[in-house]
Amino acid sequence: MLTLTILVPLIGALAILYVNEDRCRKVACVLGAIPLLLLIIAWIGFDTGAGAPVFQWVESYPWIPSLGVGWRMGVDGIALAIATMSALLFVATIAWPAETQGRPRQYYAWFLFLEAVSLGVFLTLDLLLFYVFFDLSLVGLFFLIGRWGHGDAQRAALKFFVYTFAGSLAMLLAIIALVLTTDPVTFDMRELIARQPLAGMDVRGALVLLGFVIGLGIKTPFVPLHTWLPPAHVDAPGPASAILAGVLLKMGTYGLIRIPFSMMSATFARYAFALGIVAVVSILWGALVAMAQRDLKRRIAYTSVNHMGYSLLGIAAAGALVGGGEQAARQMALTGATVEMVAHGLITGSLFLICGVFWQRGREYDLQTYGGLAQVAPRLTGFAVLASFASLGLPGLAGFVAELQIFVGTFGVYPWLAAIGLVGILITAALFLQMLQQLFFGELPARWSDFSDLGRVETRLLAVLAVLVVVIGIYPVWLLTLINSTTAVLTGGP
Amino acid sequence: MLWLLALIPILAAPAVFLRAGERRATLGIAAAGVLAATLALAIWAALGGWSGQLAWSGALRLQVGLTDFSAVMAILVPAVALPVVVYATAHEDSQGLKRLIALLLLFVGAMELLVIAADLLTLLIGWELVGACSWALISHRWRDADNPAAGRYAFVATRLGDLGLFLAAMAAFTGTRSFAFAGLGQLDGPLQQLLVFGVLLSAAAKSGQVPFAPWLFRAMAGPTSVSALLHAATMVAAGAYLLIRLHPVLDSAAWFGPVTIGIGLVTALAGGTVTLLQPHAKKLLAASTSAQYGLMFVAVGAGYPGVALAHMVSHAAFKALLFLGAGIAGEQAGSFELSRMRFARTLPYVTVLSAAGALALAGVPPLGAAWTKEAVIAAAAHAGPALAIALMLAGGLSAAYAMRFQYSVFGPGDEAEDDAKSSYRLETVMLALLAVACVVLGALWLPGARGALEQGFGANLPLFKPWETIGSLIALAAGLYAGLLVARHDPALGGDGALAASDDWLGLPVAIHRLVVAPTSQLAQYSARFDDHVIDYTVGRIAAAATAIAQTGWHFLERLADGLPEGSARWVALGGEDSRRLQTGLSHHYFALIAIGVVVLTLILLAGS
């Protein structure tokens, strides 16, 4: 079933090259929605009861037996939550009325390809496949930015590619070093988690951890490895930006939980405080720099640095101790970090789709040139206000459920880091309200008097994301039950 | 069931926005119906002792419940909101009216959630939703960019306080594994101190105490009915309410009492001075709100939360009344400048009704507000006679500014006046409801009232001593006279000259700007420049170096290095070059490269195993 989730869009990506140009989008929507349906079925069938296996829906086929490599699929609560959110965001971005610049087949083919490999990252249980999918996702996005972007798109795409590719090389080295310590050699994640191959190896463990942190940290991104992100966003088309922020960044934090957190927990715990400091720096730096941006997309890109910082903080706090110490707090931090990934995907995905609206209508991202758009685009204003408040962590919306748990959980382990990180939610409040004020309120400049409001399709897609943001904010039981079933095990709980 | 108290207005808000249409009458009936239902439900809930629970997860449980004090508050909120919102449907601009009404209902619902909360998580949800509603309401007339700016100022200033509640929630969960109010008493040591600090910080910010007071001035950018609700029964009331609700827990920290008294007293005196110097009707009322909540803070700090609650109830009635009256006068005058009003002849009914509110604000017996003010002074006397005398001074100030307000706005005009612009019929009825409430509260002076309060609500009330009553009556008389002098002879006092600088909260906003706002935005600018010119530049240099190495040829490197470092350099170089080639359309090179990479990887792995 999980294999189908990957194969359908992958084969679809090839098949769509032979579809009539006019029907491309519809076909792509259907193909893109199949993984979402399959994942929802997987979610419904997922056993969250105590004593249920951690990884479920497992499929395993031998591939390179001598190396212990196999086609291994399976999900735990964390992977399932993030993968389902990603699949939903892919459906929304594929259905989004985009400017395909006369090459709709290729555009949708790359989107389906990207969906397949991105879901692969979250669904695989084989470390080599993880790496392959991780890298292929770069390829997919590279083409989407380079060929359908605007401005200096090729340069931005190149920078994005080379920078993140360097990161995945660091990760490759770490993977090799990790795997080579096992005997017999295996890339099976479940085996690696059970064996903890680097336990007791100080220097080697630290170096391998460094490799993973750099590799995954560039992707997340943490400060100071984040400077590829703003240009990539600015020049990317809106839907690609939404995927970059909503799905690709999650690969970094998800990878941290899946690999170093789980497979080398003792080493991770030793350096967790340092990671926590990196997280707090990312939170504050991302928020401060975002506040100074005049460019709409750069501003939101930097808030991603801030939000992924929250997620990292939760992960660091959760991994700070091995065994059952401070278990309730650590579990809460890890659950919060996962909810942050889901919430950030939905919220920032919406925000970047909204940015795309500005480019399509105005060919301009400079905040100062806009104003008073509430007068001509009330629906756009409504969605932007909701997404902004969700992003600044207003209770009743998804971001709060994540950030509250991260801060409360982290406080039990690293009280000072949690208290300093709190300042981040104040700065984001200021910067989002300032942005709303600049875009939508005050006088409407004459040049925007014919700025058109959201169309029917755009409204519906944003509404779906907004409804989910509200539902998670008010009644997150269904999501928290799924995630907690895994985080309880990961933090050594009962 | 108790959840309904918050849910009814919250769910009614989108329904009103989407379905009620634009007609004032429809909006008025819908809003009145929703708020009346909420009010009835609140009374029913108070009698029935309802509670409720909603589990988000094992650790996160939302709880609601009512205590004697919170039941009073739960009834007060819709009771004040009802006349205010109905007034809004008749009075405010028709542009965006249904949005305004929907937001006001949401505001009430969020406040009810805050009031019925029985744990810090539920409280925090209501607390911040109230703040967000304030942002939307203050920004309501968004076509003027100053209004959203004022909304942002209010939201960010109060959110700074909200961080205190986050801290309190963090401390509570770490210490008790739960957010429930019931368990907070078990906290001790630094966690207890942090809890008390956090709660006090957020309460002071919400209630417009020093140094957060200036946001209340900026909040005047909103429509008058918004101000009335925000000052009387929601938002600002939330701060003092929280201290009243959590008083037993807070009081266990030794410093809580003195610090709270200090904050309240400074705000009451400084706020009273600032109020007296206001030449602008709405700002005058706004500044007086800070001062009046200062009195409540003193009462809580002195150990009498019941007294603070009583003063909050009487304040809610007269402050809503005064704002609504000022709204009518403002519409009549076309501005809120005190020197341009005096509508006794034009608006005789409004004048009389507003007078009830002004006398209550001044603390003139036998109005109920006078009793609650006396109770605050008596409570303060337990902490020391000097404090009681300082509060008498504050009481004198409130008499002075109440007099200045009433005489300037509704005093007898000199010249022939225009007719009223409208009959203000529905507005006047709503004013009358509130004025009746002000007068009925006078029952507090009746002999049996004290016993009823102590038994009915478990409130601990201080005894009034003769010297306190005499002292405050003298201060009252002096204040009324001073206020009359100002209103008669210098109606524009504080509008220009040396005092003009001090009427903007004694320069506090300037200090906040210089010490907090400006440095933060400077820091943001520097950070952004550092980000571009140092961090990104460094990365660029590293990339350039890699390119240079690639150009000199990696054959050379091959001989220098071996093992894994070599592999990585090769990949960087290849990756860089190939990516560049992609732009020329030779994308198949990349796939060739991947194939090579897989082969190399396989070889390395084979060698390793």
Outline:
Chain A has 494 residues and is mainly alpha-helical. In chain A, 72% of the residues lie in helices and 3% in strands. Chain A has helices at residues 2-15, 24-44, 77-95, 104-123, 127-148, 153-180, 189-195, 202-219, 229-235, 238-263, 265-291, 296-318, 327-362, 378-391, 398-413, 415-421, 423-440, 456-474, 477-490; strands at 56-64, 69-75.
What does this structure look like?
Chain A is mainly α. Chain A has a domain of about 220 residues. In chain A, about 70% of the residues lie in helices and about 5% in strands. Chain A contains 19 helices and two strands. Chain A has a two-stranded antiparallel sheet with strand order 1-2. In chain A, helix 2 runs antiparallel to helix 3, helix 3 packs parallel to helix 13 and helix 11 runs parallel beside helix 16. The two termini of chain A are about 30 Å apart. The relative contact order of chain A is 0.10. The termini of chain B are far apart. Chain B has a two-stranded antiparallel sheet with strand order 1-2. Among the domains of chain B are: about 250 residues, no CATH class; about 90 residues, no CATH class. Helices cover about 75% and strands about 0% of the residues of chain B. Chain B has about 600 residues and is mainly alpha-helical. In chain B, helix 4 runs antiparallel to helix 5. Chain B is globular, with a radius of gyration of 30 Å. The mean pLDDT of chain B is about 90. The chains are: A mainly alpha (about 500), B mainly alpha (about 600). The interface between A and B is large, with 79 and 71 residues.
